Amino acid sequence: MFNETLQKYSFLKDLGIEEVNSGACSGVDTWLPTEGRDLLESISPIDGSVIAKVALATSEDYENVIKAAQEEFQTWQMIPAPKRGLIIRDFGDELRKYKDALGQLITLEMGKIVAEGKGEVQEAIDISDFAVGLSRQLYGLTMKSERVKHRMFEQYHPLGVVGIITSFNFPVAVWSWNSMIAAVTGDTMVWKPSSQTPLCAIAVQKIANRVMKRHGLKSVFTLVIGRGSEVGEKLLNDRRVPLISATGSTRMGVRVAEVVGKRLGRTILELGGNNAIILMEDANLDLAIRAILFGAVGTAGQRCTTTRRIIVQRSILKEVEERLIKAYKQVTIGDPLDPHTVMGPVVSQQAIKDMLDAINALPPQGGKLIHGGERVNRKGFYITPAIAEAPGNIQMVCTETFAPLLYIIPFDTIDEAIELHNGVPQGLSSAIFTDSVKYSERFLSTIGSDCGIANVNIGTSGAEIGGAFGGHKDTGNGGVEAGSDAWKQYMKRQTSTINWSDELPLAQGIKFGE
Ligand code: NAD
Fold it and tell me: How far is ligand 1, taken at its centre, from the CA of residue 178, in Å?
């Protein structure tokens, strides 16, 4: 059976995927045993078939992994940051070689169309390039001391072992946003990926292993695939892990914050979004309709930045609905490995159920389905993308349904639009389409969007890696990943004062025992 799978998807062989794979890697040559472990099946949403199996890590495996990462930290932190950057440059080059294969594996295991699968690997390559440059720019400040012949400055040191918990929808990119930055800052790391996309993690770990081995390194990147309730909880409770960066649902983030907070550990939480676009009547609708289509239907509505709400000025409501329905009718749904497909499956049967439940809950709340939301009659987990009208922020509109379900909400004034926009619990990505400077500046001002990302005349999804990425409110704790100065979260700050005088003056002019 697995031989057939290998014949059909030859990229699996290139990436080193086997019929039964170890789910724990503590070093470049040490994949932990598979015997006696429970097996996890990796299921393709394309047709519901089993691709391969993964031996779930036990508590003992976890212990081996964490010890190896801790030990490696002693070596890694002493390598000068620019030299760490050169090693990451090699990793980026190795990823380039596997871009096609890895992009296809993402598609096979998670269901996004192959252009987006390869785009995700490109994002990992981009952040590794960013990290190489960053490795020479881990700047601290110098300050003027108030004391004579004293020098004052701050510097940043690596934190130690970083725990990276990732969601299924970006099985490679989310890890790379964290790991590439953490690596150049001098941290080692333990990755706990989603149980829905274990093969992507195994393939990436194998690519990283090859590169690290060439440089005589062992356990900068390690991997542990296990149950959230067992291995995940161990990671959260582990005092040897000073930072947990967790991406996933708000429910998971609350648990991470609670457990890690209790031991005063650090967290970066990237959680659920509920992203909206405000459409003013002066908007360029040709641009807006394309942005909404990509934002709402791309990745089958399973991006954290997916456009879930459009808030439309009433005078253009009818036209927007008609144009959107026309655009939705042209979306080709099918095998995401086929380059002509625009929308592939959602990740699981459960995701279809969640979407249908949300649609059914609309009428009693005053909402109405106006397009789509039908199961597609083929093997795998396919559903047509849906558009619904909502009178305002009804309960379903305030909930993140992780599927291609778009709500249209009318408004009359900009004040009303911004109130609707901010009136949901989440705060990740947002956009306004307008040609008015007044409206766009208002949207970006302190009395505008309350999200971590706010765009003008581009949609909510498709962030570039150079900017800091993160959200507010239920989307997380304001922690950011990727670009800008996100690196500071992976390091500890130290302020130092050096006295080169022959006196011991105290700050604030205090005289003590003189
Ligand atoms: P999920 O919360 O089900 O799982 C995310 C990860 O958390 C998985 O690896 C899972 O095993 C792990 N996990 C769950 N419980 C845990 C525990 N107790 N201890 C340790 N680990 C635990 O999310 P998902 O379905 O994989 O992803 C979809 C969600 O992720 C959506 O809500 C989406 O908006 C969000 N997301 C957010 C961002 C962002 O940057 N804000 C990016 C991508 C996805």
Answer: 15
